[in-house]
Amino acid sequence: MSGEEVKPPSEAELAKMDRDQLVELGTKLDGVTLVEYPDPWPVKDTRAEKRAERLVALWFAISGLAGLLFVVSLIWWPWKYEAPDNEHGHFLYSLYTPFLGITLGLAVLGLGVGILLYTKKFIPHELAVQERGDGGSKEVDKATIVAQLADTGTRSTIARRSLIKRSAGLGAAGLGLAAAALPVASFIKDPWKNTDNKESLWHTGWQPEHPGEVVYMRRNTGRPHEVALVRAEDLDAGGMETVFPFRESERHDEEALSAALHRSDNPVMLIRLRPADSARVVKRKGQEDFNFGDYYAYTKLCSHVGCPTSLYEQRTNRILCPCHQSQFDALHYGKPIFGPATRALAQLPITVDDKGYLIARGDFIEAVGPAFWERKS
């Protein structure tokens, strides 16, 4: 290092300097001594240089193509559940999430590896020593740093490597498109186009498809195509069972029977309170007749973030969500009493038919699960 003070040039002298002179001046003004500043490719256009350029371009191209594949798979890959008995459909469905992860991972990896390889192969690896100094940036400092950056760009030969520039642009565009597609994907299909049907956020599979249709409560026996309806006498006092909707029109439709068990907003906790507990129930205004005797039915979707509230504590009559430990009081219209949940569990209105089978009197009167933008509460 040198302790000699460098006198800044006048504005007229500064204007006459070329880039090399500005680079040299900038290093001196910053108290920097360039020990080594080698050209990565002193002999231009060699086979090794071309191979290095193609390798960098290959990784950028992989990133761009992977980003495009991510967007394509996110939007057009078969993502709806298919039962295992449909081998082809189930196989494609099972690849949806892994394919999203692989393509997005490759997009990030390809761009990162391409940048690292370009830095290693083409950016000059100078060795510099700089003296410690204080003070802000002057006009001469600004001019020299711009010159140094421009010189670095020239020495890295990026200006004449159109293949790398195009492939890098493809990689950055592909990854950017993938990142933009994630928040935009939910707007491709309008969730409010037909809000009165059971496919909207406001309704569930318990909604009758036509006036007068009976929707039964069905238990899951482990065999998707078996229909096991629930009678009022099937549960002991203090018992709980998860039930799903069933329609007679679906009895011989294997796909519909299986889909009813896998739809996320269908599961309902059917609880039969003990007589002593039933006498202490506090009912929600407007839902005074939603129960049938000692039987109460609540959605299994937690009102916090939609985890399954699959635990029922008979002694305390509390419904528990294992994800974030929210607790709901089954004797107080499913009101939250502990944890992050702030809204009561939606209650399904139920009764029995003339054969003693438990049925739904209609759909939930509020949206189940966590909040969303259009929800008022």
UniProtKB/TrEMBL annotation:
Chain ranges passing through the membrane: 56-79, 99-118, 168-188
Residue ranges occupied by any Rieske domain in the UniProt entry: 265-359
PANTHER family the record matches: CYTOCHROME B-C1 COMPLEX SUBUNIT RIESKE, MITOCHONDRIAL
Main subcellular location: membrane
Entry keyword Cell membrane: yes
UniProtKB keywords: 2Fe-2S, Cell membrane, Disulfide bond, Electron transport, Iron, Iron-sulfur, Membrane, Metal-binding, Oxidoreductase, Respiratory chain, Transmembrane, Transmembrane helix, Transport
Domain of life: Bacteria
Protein's UniProt name: Cytochrome bc1 complex Rieske iron-sulfur subunit
Pfam families (UniProt xref): QcrA_N (PF19297), Rieske (PF00355)
Family: Belongs to the Rieske iron-sulfur protein family.
UniProt topology in membrane: Multi-pass membrane protein
UniProt-listed InterPro entries: QcrA_N, Rieske_2Fe-2S, Rieske_2Fe-2S_sf, Rieske_Fe-S_prot
CDD domains cross-referenced by the UniProt entry: Rieske
Cytoplasm as UniProt keyword: no
Subcellular location: Cell membrane
Role, per record: Iron-sulfur subunit of the cytochrome bc1 complex, an essential component of the respiratory electron transport chain required for ATP synthesis. The bc1 complex catalyzes the oxidation of menaquinol and the reduction of cytochrome c in the respiratory chain. The bc1 complex operates through a Q-cycle mechanism that couples electron transfer to generation of the proton gradient that drives ATP synthesis.
